[in-house]
Amino acid sequence: MSRPERILIVNPFGIGDVLFTLPLIRAVRRAFPRSAIVYLCNRRTEGMLRHDPDLNNLVVYEKDELLQCWRASRRQGLRQMARLLRQLRQARFDLAIDLSLGERYSLVLRLLGVRRRVGFDYRRRGRFLTERLAIDGYHNHHVVEYHAKLLAFIGIHARESSLSLQISNEDEAWARTWLRQRGLQDERCLIGIVPAGGASWGIDAPYRRWGLENFAAVGDALATRHQARVLLFGEAVDASACAALRQRMAMPAVDVSGQTTLGQFIALLSHLHLVVCNDGGPLHLAVSRGVRTVSVFGPVDPTVYGPYPLDAARHRVICKGNLPCRPCYHRFKLPPCPYERACLTTVEPSEVIEACEDLLWQDAASTKAGAHA
Question: What pTM was computed for the model?
Answer without folding.
Answer: 0.93
